[in-house]
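Dear Dr. H.,

I hope your travels went smoothly. While you were away I took the liberty of generating a structure for the chain from your last submission, since the lab meeting agenda had it listed for discussion. I wanted you to have the full record in hand beforehand rather than looking at slides cold. The sequence, exactly as received, is reproduced here:
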Amino acid sequence: MLELFAWALLAGVVNALAGGGLFFTLPALLGLGLPSTHAVATASVASWPGYMSAFWGMRRQLGNGPWLALSLLGLGGGTAGAFALVQFDAGNFNYLVPWLLLGVSVLYGRQLLSHKGSEGPLTMRPKALPLLFGGAFYGGFFGGGLGVLLMAISGQMRLGSNLQQHAIKLYISVLASGATIVVYSLSGMVDWHSCLLLALGYLVGGRCGGSLLTWVKPRLLAWIIVVFGLGLSGYYFMRFYG
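The corresponding predicted structure, in token form, is as follows:
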């Protein structure tokens, strides 16, 4: 159990800084003998406290930003994604995971190399609506690498400063993860004993990671996210296709 808590602690820090914490907790849950769908659901529900604690330290970054639009997108997309997972065989996720991580990491890295920049005013662009909804859907459906995906979207759309984009990432993650609590609980897919232990680790780790965001250089952090995503994609290519 201590090992499970330690993985959740690390996952909480990773989620706050970049996203992808599920890739640390999911293997631990599978090692306990949980079916893959139950492991995904349990890890997703347990991640909510970590997202919430990380966002609480960043909430002022959004100021008078587009709260309503972000709320509707996060809740709607997360709920739809969770309902989709209930109907899906989670074992097939294994072959999608490395491709998804590779795609969002390359997308984010491309944005960093663009001369147009990745920052702009904190206003909701119409083109960003379906993309953010899709990100929230992914968060409810699986969530691995969700932070990388949301950072890539907000960077491409130039939604605020780098720190404001982190706040957007965390807020949508809070809502999408929160939506899974209801859907997965009603479906009976959550192992609550493991979930509560994971949640405690996520909570402590998320708070630590959220505090780190305020002093890490934004561009350095952005490249750390890219390297992190590429590393994870390579690892899962070797694991699932090797």
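Two observations you may find useful: The first helix runs from residue 2 to 17. The CA atoms of residues 12 and 205 lie 4 Å apart.

With kind regards,
E. W.
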